[in-house]
Structures are given as C-alpha cells and as structure tokens.
Amino acid sequence: MLSIALQRFAALPTWAKTLLVSVALVLVGLSVLLSPLVVVLAFLVLIVAVFALVIRLLRHRPLRRWGIIAATSLVVLLVFSGISNALYFSGQPEEQAKSPEPHKQTAKPDTKQKPSKQAEQQKGGEQSDNAEEPHPPATVKITRVVDGDTIEISPSVDGKDTVRLIGIDAPEEETAQCGAQPLAQQASAQMANWQGSKAKLEFDEDLTDQYGRLLAYVHVHALVDIMVNEDMVLGGLAQVYIVPPNTKYEDRLREAQQEAKKKPIPLEPSIWKLSSAKQAQLADHGNGIGQGDGACPPKPQSATPAPTSPSPSPNPSPNRDYNAPNPNAPGNAPSSAPSSAPSSVSPAEREDCISKGGHLVPPGTDGDGDGDGCAGE
Questions:
Q1: Which of 37, 129, 130, 179 could bond to 297 as cystine, CB 3.0-4.6 Å?
Q2: 3-class SS at 95?
Q3: In this structure, what are the phi and psi dihedrals at residue 65, rounded to the nearest 5 degrees?
Q4: DSSP assignment letter at 235
Q5: Neighbour tally for 230: CB within 10 Å
C-alpha cells in the first residue's frame, strides 16, 4: 500500500508535489503546536481500534486494517506525548532542578538570620490573627424599623439592640425641631419590608458609633442573599456615606449608587429624581446633593379646630378675654369664687353662666358685653 502511494505521488506534476509537501509540512507544524490535542485524539482512536480488534477477534474476522490503525495511533500517541512534554512541561523539572541552588548559596547566612526569621514568623502569626474578622457575624431578627437606615433587632448583640446600617444615609424622619426630609417616609416604608425577617449582621472595623448603636451590613435571604445597605442605595432611597475605617464594601456601594443615578427604577421615588431645592434638604456626603448636615424643613402646622359652643346663639364679637382660659372650667376652677364676682348672683344664674361656657365677672367689665355679669358666654 505504501509503495502504491509513493508511485502515485511520483506520477504527479511538480506543482502538485510542491503543494502536497507544503500542506503536509503545515499539518505537521500544527500537529506539533497542538500536540496535547493530538495526543488526546490518538488516545481515543487507539481505544476504538483496540475495541474493534477484540470484537473482530471474537468473530474470527481479519484484523489487518484495525491492527494498522491501532499501531499507527499508538505511534502517534508516543511521539506526540514526547513532543508535548518537551514543549509545554519541560519548564517545571528545570525549575525544580534550579530551585536548590539558591538554598545552597544562602546556607551560610541562614545561621545569622535565624532571629530575623523567627521575628518574621511571629509577625506573620500576628498578621494572620488580625486578618480574621474582628467581630464575628450574628444572626438576629429585625423587630422594628426606626427609619431608612436604622433598625432594632432581637436578640441584642453585646447588649445593644439598635443597628445603624454601614455606608449609607437615608432621608431623616421628623424630629421635635424639624420636619421630615424628602422621601423619608418612603425610605422607612422600604426598610419596613424586612421587618420580621431573619438577618445576618456583618461587622466591620468599628463595632459601634458615637451614639452606642451597632454598625453593620445587614444581609437577608430572599431566594438570594441581599445586602439591605446596597438594596436601599440601588432603590434610590439612600445615598452613600462612608465613614472610615468601615470601608469594606465602599466600592460595591458606590457602584450601586452609580446604577441608581443612571438607571432609576421607573415609577418609583428616588432621591436622584428630586428637584434641586428638595435635594438641598438632604445631607451633603460628597455625592453632589445636599447641603451641610441637611436642611431643617419646617414642621407641618396642624389646623386648630374652631371653638364650638353648646348654645345655638351666634358667638359674641372677639375681645381680649374671649380666648382666655375659663377659670370655672374643670381643672381650672379656683378654690373659691373670685372676690370681684357679684354676691347677689343666684346659684341658678351661676350654673346658667357656666353652662354657656362663660365665667362670672362684675357686670359691665371687659368681656361682659350685655352686662349680665357673665363674660365669655
């Protein structure tokens, strides 16, 4: 078969011979470069050939063709295994052979450097201890939401049950002096979605803040792990507020903030959608919004109900005593009647005056327009 192939090759024109030789050289070169792949293919072919030989042997069939295939694949496997080892795996033995040389060269200085090595080992031990988490995580339940960045937990950790979320600042709720900042209620409502959930508290370098609250990254599990700190920023209801040394997730939180700025959630409130005037009422944490520690919006004034009278008669004209406290009202009545009250007033007239919401005065004084001795009726 080989002689027939050589005769046919010799009969070809020169250009065809040159082309075939070039193609063969290219294939050999590629095979050498891809020798690991060739080894795998040769191994697979060898397995198939051996399996075919066994079957043909059991059936008493000729073995010549599959025998040639098996022998050829075995030769290719051996040859290209050597090529592959030479090209891709020869560096390791050389490195291993060279590695003892520096030890031989530094064998003498080792005796002098023993104390420094011991010191390095001690330092390495200290660094490994410091590399551990300074405060182990805790599993708790979120029992109450204070606002968009503060929650209460149970059980307490180190005797503390209030947690301030690290790395974020949500709009502030109403205080005794100031009204609520824009979107404060929405931020609290978003945080309230996690109330009653189990959470894992992950701590950073500083465990508490100046107010004695725990500082933590709050993780809840809802199909996937969710860091509530990041979730509030992604939802546009909190801005990034990094206070060193608690900077473990600074990059992650800032990426979430950029996402909230560029792609706010449609039809959902966001601090990045607010007008400039309302954004100015937030705290300034270097994110391009807010002023100082945040403005103090005026508290909404509740409408005072108009005074009502049990009498169907129209109210008298206003005067300086009309809205004055009634000394005869329950809890405000003096221990005795005022000395200026007329002594000739009968008990029936007194009760009638009080029932009309008035109080006894000398007739004709300010507030007693009709001169009957009953003012503010």
A1: 179
A2: helix
A3: -65, -50
A4: T
A5: 23
pLDDT in tens, 216-251: 999 999 889 999 999 999 999 999 999 999 999 999
Q: Which residues contact 163 (CB under 8 A, 6 or more apart)?
A: 150, 151, 152, 153, 201, 213, 214, 215, 216, 218
Nearest to 256 by CA among 167, 190, 173, 188: 167
Average pLDDT over residues 101-113: 46
What are the pLDDT digits (tens) for 168-215? 999 999 988 888 999 999 999 999 999 999 999 999 999 999 999 999
Q: Which of 11, 35, 9, 36 is nearest to 23 (CA)?
A: 9
Check: CB of residue 298 under 8 Å from CB of residue 175.
no
- Residue 97: pLDDT band (50, 70, 90) is very low
More confident residue, 231 or 315: 231
Q: How far apart are the first and last CA of the chain?
A: 134
* CATH 2.40.50.90 describes domain 138-279: yes
Largest CA distance in the chain: 154
Q: Which two tokens stand for residue 108?
A: 């003498």
| Across 254-280, average pLDDT | 95
- Put simply, whether the predicted model's pTM sits higher than 0.70 gets the answer no
**DSSP state, residue 161:** E
In this structure, what DSSP letter does residue 216 have? E
Q: How far apart are CA 198 and CA 202, in angstroms?
A: 13
What does the chain come to in residues? Answer: 377
The catalytic residue positions are 164, 172, 213
Domain limits, the chain:
14-88, 138-279, 319-377
Pair 170, 237: CB distance under 8 Å:
yes
Which residue from 150, 254, 241 is spatially nearest to 194, judged by alpha carbons? 150
On the 0-12 / 13-18 / 19+ scale of CB atoms within 10 A, 257 is buried
Cross-strand bridge partners of residue 279 = none
Question: Cβ(376)–Cβ(319) under 8 Å?
Answer: no
Residue 309 has pLDDT above 60, yes or no: no
Give the integer Cα–Cα distance in Å for 69 and 53: 10
